[in-house]
Amino acid sequence: LDLDAARQELEEFIPHVRNISDSSIRKMAGRDLVRFKEFKFEGIAVKFGRFSQKENNQIRKNIQEFLLITGIDSAEKLLFTSRYPEDKETINHLKTQHHFCEKLSEGIPRPWRLIYYRARKIFDPNNYKGRYSKEEKEKLKKYHTLHGNDWKKISELMSRSNLSVAMKYSEIKSDVNYGPWSKEETQKLMHAVEEVIRKRMEKEDANSLSSSEKSRREISIDRETLYQKLPWTEIEAKVGTRYWRQCKQKWTAILTTKMNKGQQLYKGTKGLQAKISLIKRLYEMKVEDANEVNWEELSNTIGDVPRAYVQAKFYKLKVCCVPLWQKKTFSEIVDYLFEKKLPELEEQL
Questions:
Q1: Are residues 92 and 41 in the same domain?
Q2: Is residue 212 included in any domain, yes or no?
Q3: 113 exposed, middle or buried (CB, 10 Å; 0-12, 13-18, 19+)?
C-alpha cells in the first residue's frame, strides 16, 4: 500500500486525515476508501458527529442480518467477543468468512471505526444501567486505586461500559469542586484550553500553505477551534478541580459572554424572545433528527453565541416543558413546544 497516495485520496473525504496515524490509514484504505467513493458517486457526503436515529436503526438492521447469516446468537458475542473466550475462535472465523466489516457499515456514510464504536455502544448490555449507587461509587474509587486508568479492567469488574466508568470517576474523585468557580480555576481553564488549541494548530502542516492561504485558514478556523471537539478529559486533568462537563459548560459561558461583550442574552424579556425565536426556527426547519439541525446557523437566532449554548437552551426547554420527552422523537418534541409552549411564551412576552 502506498501510504502517501492513500492519505491523499482519503483527504477528499476526511479533511483532518494528515493527523491520523499510518496504521489507521492502512485500515481506512481497506475498509473505507471504496465505500466513500461509492457514496460520492451517489451524491452522498461522508458524515461525522452525532448519529441520527435513521443511522442507529441501520446499524441494528445490519447487526441483526449478520447474526441471521452466521448463526451467532447475540450481538454481545459478535461485538464483545473477548467476553466469550470459549467461542472466540469460531466467532472470529465467521466474522472473516462473512465479511463483518462490509456488512456492519452497509448504507452508512461514515468511517468504519466510528460505526463499530457506535454499534458497541448500542449493544453493550453494560451501557444502560442507570445511576450509580453509593456502593458502586465506592467500588469505583477502590478499583481506580488498584488499577489506575485501566478502564477496560475496571469496566469488567463493575459490569459497566469503559466510557461509563471513566466519566463517572471524573465526576466523583475527591478533589472535584462543585461550588462557584474561583478566579484561579477560571484562569487555569483558559490556559488549559489555550494550550490544547495551540498544540492542535502546531500539528497542522502549515508549511504546505502559502502565507495568504495560511492567513485565511487561521481566520476561518478560529471560532470553530475555540469551542468544537475540544479534548475535555485532557482539559479536566489540567484544571484539576473540576470534572470535564463542568469545564465544558464554564468555557461555553465564558465564550458567550466575550462574544456578546458582557450582555445578558437570556434574561427577562430578551430571554422570552430568544425562546420564542428558537422554537419557531426549529419548527420551520422540519427536520426529523437533532443531528440534521445546523446549530451553528441557529445560534444567530439568539445572538452571537457558540452552538453549545443554543443546544443547552434547547435541552433545558424540552426537559422543563415537554412531558415524557425521553419517549418522544425530536420532531415530536419540537411540535409540542410549538403547539403548547409557544403560545404561553408569547402571552408572557
A1: yes
A2: no
A3: middle
- By CB neighbour count within 10 A (0-12 exposed, 13-18 middle, 19+ buried), where does 192 fall? buried
pLDDT digits (tens, 9 = 90+) for 271-327: 888 888 888 888 888 777 776 777 777 777 666 677 777 888 888 888 888 888 877
In the structure grid, which three cell numbers stand for residue 74, read together? 447475540
Distance CA 282, CA 290 (A): 10
* Residue 84 burial (CB count, 10 A): 15
Three cell numbers at 1? Answer: 500500500
Which residue from 132, 244, 118 is spatially nearest to 192, judged by alpha carbons? 244
* Domain span including residue 188: 183-206+220-260
Instruction: Tell whether 308 is covered by a domain.
Output: yes
**Counted domains in the chain:** 4
Q: What are phi and psi of 178, to 5 degrees?
A: -110, 0
Closest CA to 313 of 269, 260, 340, 274: 274
Asked if residue 96 is part of any domain, the answer here is yes
Q: 3-class SS at 251?
A: helix
Measure Cα distances from 320 to 43, 268, 289, 312, 333 in Å.
40, 17, 20, 12, 12
Q: Among 226, 244, 232, which Cα is nearest to 309's?
A: 226
Distance of alpha carbon 32 from alpha carbon 16, whole angstroms: 15
225, 306: one domain: no
102 & 18 share domain: yes
Q: Is residue 211 a part of any domain in this protein?
A: no
Judge whether 275 and 313 are in contact, CB under 8 Å.
yes
pLDDT value at position 217? 46
